[in-house]
Amino acid sequence: MTDTEQAPRSSPRTPPAWRGRHTVAVAAGIGIGVLLCLLNVLVLFRAGMSFGGSALVAVLGAALLRLAGKLNWQGLFVVFSIASSGYMATAALDTGIGAILLQTGVLPSWALLVALAVIANLLGAGLGSLLAKRLVVTDRLPYPTLQPAITLMKSLSTPSTDGTNRIGRTLPIATGAGAAIAAGAAAWGHDSTPDLFGSGTHLALALSPLLFGVGFLIGRRACVWLAAGSVYSLIVWYAQDNGAATTTSYTAHLAYPWVLACGVGLILGYSISSLVRARGPLARAVRRAFRGSKTLRVAGTAGLAALAVTVVLVPATLKYAGLGALALVLLLVLTVFLNRAGGEIGLVPLAPALYFGVAVFAVTGWSTSVAVLTASTLCCAAIASVYFTYSAKVAHERPAGLPEPPSKIVRRTQIGGGIAGSVMGVGVVLVLAHAGVIGGDAFPSPVATAVRFVDTAVRGSAEYPAAVGLALAITGPIGMALTFTSVMPTMLGLGILLPPAYSLTIAAGGLAQWVVVRRHPERKSATEIVASGLIIGEGLIMVVVLIAREVL
């Protein structure tokens, strides 16, 4: 049921259903958030990946609230919003810390890192509040990997109806199937099929029910452009292999300017066009924020005045002002980039965004520590904005008849979860660093190693920055122009940036859904439930396998 079909909303004032402290829900949200944050950091430094866990949060939150006798959708939303902002509170920043440690052997202070994490989450909440209405209400992005959590929250917290009974029959079967396939792939020890047309072609399919289910949810058109980007990536990768003595690794392939800068350039151009097209609503949102907060107005005015006075009195600080301006522009671009990707495909390509940010600051000549720490903090803020829009999407898709969560609840839960996760995430990284295990056999830190590789590649080659600039100069305007056509630049760019096996598996899911629905349109709802089950099944198994294999 769409928002326009739901029962009329109540008055803008805080409705009675949202009065109260939701103490149990707050405690559950913080507990789940910091626990998953801890696991995410450990798994990231062990396996180079992290798990989103939206559906897992819904299941754990419902179980805890049921035990406390407080289960309802409002309480479950509070749990979800706090936990979702908490378990990814240090995403990207923890990788940056690891990369700096591996590169320089010097660890920034705990107070500085916690401050950066908290500031990043506050910035993310502010940016997310500006973008949420545009992405969720106006553009109606599907948020495919979030849909299973939305479905679970509705079915677990509302009385049985025909719809929930149908979900109750189909969803467990699909979840079991997804879990079984994911467990089989984990036991086999492979995450993709062998190359379909011989070794070195890189044309394979991921053994992932989650990615296959994502294809069901994002639609055939998006899958077509995702596959088109993947074809380009495969061609470039094949050419790289032919020009090298050994097979090119995925990290080296991704860092190649005509892959990384090309994919990012398409999305960057599209992001700039999106910002221009949304300038009116964004400007009005900013004006409302400043009009509604005297503290914000005073702080903003004082900050600008202090900056102007400092630059005039100490001209040498102008270069730092330039770095700040560059960081602000990059933050806006990365925020739109990651939010559009998360809303359209459900996968947030954090690694390419981080690599690109590091490359940009390395080209400007800033030291490794400054480049990596600045880029990772900006990406951390952008991720925080993504999870703010996720909560806004969940609130928008609430069960019919329930009042919308007040904006202050969304803000406070996101900020509270982000602060709790910041302290936990940074603390875990520092414990690992002081133990001397980051970069060793126990915690090889593959993503941090890749960040160091990108930074070294940019600084060690006079041709690399020129190639990056040329690729951006060509693909950026193309991305801007494609915004006004039927092409989907975000999908095209993501197809270039994601591993081809991932992109092609998603495309295969979209093709399968189209084949089913083309002759039987009435089955569309059933295919979406099946897709949700596949995503939930692999998500749960992935958490179990990663904890068992990489942590315990």
Automatic annotation (TrEMBL):
GO terms for molecular function: oligopeptide transmembrane transporter activity. InterPro entries: OPT (IPR004813). The chain crosses the membrane at residues 23-45, 51-69, 76-101, 107-132, 171-190, 196-218, 223-240, 255-276, 296-314, 320-338, 345-364, 370-390, 415-437, 464-484, 496-517, 529-548. Keywords: Membrane, Transmembrane, Transmembrane helix, Transport. It is a multi-pass membrane protein. It is found in: Membrane. This is Uncharacterized membrane protein, oligopeptide transporter (OPT) family. The lineage of its organism: Bacteria, Bacillati, Actinomycetota, Actinomycetes, Pseudonocardiales.
